[in-house]
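Sequence only, no structure available. Ideas?
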Amino acid sequence: MRLFECGSLVPGCPWHTRADNDAEIVRRVVEHMRDAHGETVIRENMIDNIKARIVDETQAA
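Reply:
I predicted one. Tokens follow.
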């Protein structure tokens, strides 16, 4: 299981998500960034930053 914690990208945000693959994590994070943080344009470097912060859940503890 893969894990992304929004607080690693947006300090103070408690939102997180888990999925079996990185593509689903990225999809969910982009949706969250639009809904919760008002991001209207998701640039390639934002996708790279998201991917860099996805970890195996077993390593997150």
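The two ends are 13 Å apart (CA to CA).
Hope that gets you unstuck.
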